[in-house]
Amino acid sequence: MENKLWCFVSMALIAAGSVTTSYAKDDGKTPIQFIPVKDVQINDAFWTPKFNRWNSVTVPDVFNKFEGKHLKTAEEQNNNNIFMDFDEVAAGRKGTGHSAGLPWFNGLVYETIRGVSDLLMQHPDKKLEDRIDKYITRIEAAQKIDSNGFIDTYTDLVQPEYRWGENGGFLRWQHNVYNAGMLIEAGVHYYEATGKVKLLEVAVRLANYMCDLMGPAPKKNIIPSHSGPEEAVIKLYWLFKQNPDIKKQINLPVDETAYWKLVTFWMENRGKHCGYPLWVKWGNEKSEQWIREQKYKDPQFGDNARPSWGDYAQDSITIFEQKTIEGHAVRATLLATGVVAAALENHSPKYIQTATDWWDNMVGRRMFITGGVGAIHFDEKFGEDYFLPTDAYLETCAAVGAGFFSQRMNELTGEGKYMDEFERVLYNNVLTGISLSGDKYTYQNPLNSHNHSRWEWHSCPCCPPMFLKIVSAMPDSSMQNKLIN
Ligand SMILES: [Zn+2]
Question: How far is CA 240 from the centre of its chain?
Answer without folding.
Answer: 20
